[in-house]
Amino acid sequence: MDDRTAEILALNAGLARAWANHRADVLAALSSLEAHRDNLPRSRDPALEPVPPYSLKR
């Protein structure tokens, strides 16, 4: 993941202070998520999901 994409993801997740102060930790968390994303079971059919997907509300 390039630095610009990581910055956009962090800022959109509300992690502006973490991005500014602890960039290496945020990048490590994003790379960990990216590494495990394909192993997470997720169906494309919403009827099969046990709970609705979570989203951030502002």
Provide a descriptive summary of the structure in words.
The chain is mainly α and 58 residues long. Helices cover 53% and strands 0% of the residues. The chain is built from three helices and no strands. The chain has helices at residues 3-12, 16-21, 23-37. It is extended, with a radius of gyration of 14 Å.
Topology (elements, then pairings):
Layout: H1 3-12, H2 16-21, H3 23-37
Total helical elements: 3
- Count of distinct strands: 0
| Mean of residue pLDDT values | 82
Which percent range describes the beta-strand content?
under 5%
Q: Please give the largest β-sheet.
A: none
What portion of residues is helical? 40-55%
Quick summary:
The protein has 58 residues and is mostly helical. It contains three helices and no strands.
What descriptors fit this protein?
58 residues, mainly alpha
